[in-house]
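User: quick one, fold this
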Amino acid sequence: MEVALFPAVYRKADVVSTGDAVLAEGESSCFFHAEKKASIACDRCGRFLCGLCDIQLGNEHICATCIESGKKKGKMQKLENKRLLRDRQALVLSIVPLFLTGITALYLTTRYRKDPTSISITQKSRWRFSVAWMFSVLQILIGIFLILSYTGVLDT
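Assistant:
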């Protein structure tokens, strides 16, 4: 039996600063904790923050108030947890009419194939019904294939 340990087992845990106490009278203090020494300013609003209040998000140091207001306004894209997929919407909008018109054309060719054709003597042929039927079946098959591939049924 072999036991392997991850390298993190041998590393010391990082110590997170909760903020130092204000020592001198003229030092700036945290906006939220007046007794703690400010270590950095918020990149959004400029409030002084202690080590406890400092939240690093990407390359920015932000306070909790700015994160909350950015989340409510939807201006902080790093906090997004849902998004509309416009490519999926476009794909569905391109597939659905194809499928529906194929079904409609198949219905029309099946339902009215024995009805009288044109009044004109030169257009008595029924070849358009056959061509329309083939195209409608092809549309339906393509629509089924696209729907199955979109839903992931065809992925193996």
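User: anything notable?
Assistant: The first helix runs from residue 64 to 73.
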